[in-house]
Specification:
The protein is mostly helical. The chain is flat.
Length: 60
Amino acid sequence: MGDDAVVEFSEDVFSVPETQPLLMPLPTTVPLQIFVCSLASEKGYDVDQPRNLATSVTVE
């Protein structure tokens, strides 16, 4: 089910185990969040205090 053609153009490839389409968010969400958190930390962004967070979650 994977796209092996992309391997020759990439340095890193993340493989996801094949599963039912309805269950696909389960094996993909947590690894993606860990990857994004690591990427943000490497770029020097504060992952605990993201910019504009207060305007999107403030409830009056």
